[in-house]
Amino acid sequence: MPRVPIRTIIETWKTCGQNISLAVRRLGIDRRTVKRWVDRGRQPWGYVRWQGVQRRSTAPKHPTLALSYEATSQVRAWREATGFCREKLAFLAKAQGLTVSASTIHRTLQRAGLIRPSTKRRRPRFQNGQVMRPSNCPGLGYLQMDVKYVTPELSGLPYTCYLYAALDISTRYKVGLILPKVDEAGSLLALYHAIQTLPFPVRYVQTDNGLEFQKRFHAKCEEVRLEHFYIHKSSPNDNAVIERSFRTDEEEFFFWLEKAPQDHLELNTWYQRFLDTYNTTRPHMGINMLTPKEAINLYHKS
Question: Among 150, 275, 278, 297, which residue has the least CB neighbours within 10 Å?
């Protein structure tokens, strides 16, 4: 459909008594188009005219070379000699009396092939992990493990303590310990506790890249024949099941504390009672309103 001339739009609008809706029906074009040209033709004293109102070119704008040949050579020489980024090169150019933006320097270096391709990837192309979410969990004994900082606002204690927790991905069965420090010794103690407490053998442990899950923890997993997998860095959603359980801990345990515990040992005793309810009584929406204990029994029956 050919464009309606600007003169026709404005004169039709005037003929229709300056009624945009009527002009739109008569012209068969978008309401916003009529309003745009009326606004552009409106004069300071209120009169609307079409004379002098022009369409803006829709031709693509190709940026021209903003630097002379000498300046381009100088920027390239600085880059090759120093390896500076575009912001530093722009600062260096300004100190030499050459005002040029960082984006212009970037385009100049790009044309010269002096921009190194990035080798950093948020996520590696290949991961050797088997369990990243409940949908691909093959059975029991595949755990997500993490540490939650229990601040004084949550516990009522005068210091921060740490909740080490492990949760079975498929049944949501959870075990945990509240300890006074965050280190590999605490993660190893929590791992031993999980292996001894869980009502099924542990096969796989998935953790983040925290300092408490590094060399010693990984070596202990290999020693007891557990596959240990690190999630992607800065990607807590990969451990979404246990992260969501920490929110449940806040909403159904920490926020309901009626008094402050004497120490982290008493807080841990209270938390173990909560876990018993969590695993045997509380229905979980993620497993069709079953309790973790019922999910385990259902898995054994199948």
Answer: 297
Contacts of 236 (CB under 8 A, 6+ apart): 208, 243
Query: Which tokens in the block code for residue 210?
Result: 């925290």
Task: Considering the domain delimited by 135-301, tell me its CATH architecture.
Answer: 2-Layer Sandwich (3.30)
CA distance 78 to 98: 13
DSSP character at residue 196? H
Note the pTM of the prediction, 2 decimals. Answer: 0.61
Q: Per-residue pLDDT for the chain (302 aa), expressed as one digit of tens each? A: 678 898 999 899 999 998 999 999 999 899 999 998 899 888 887 888 888 888 877 776 665 556 788 888 988 998 888 888 888 898 888 888 888 888 889 988 988 888 877 665 555 544 555 556 777 888 899 999 999 999 999 999 999 999 999 999 999 999 999 999 999 999 999 999 999 999 999 999 999 989 999 999 999 999 999 999 988 877 888 899 999 999 999 999 999 999 999 999 999 999 999 999 999 999 999 999 999 999 999 988 87
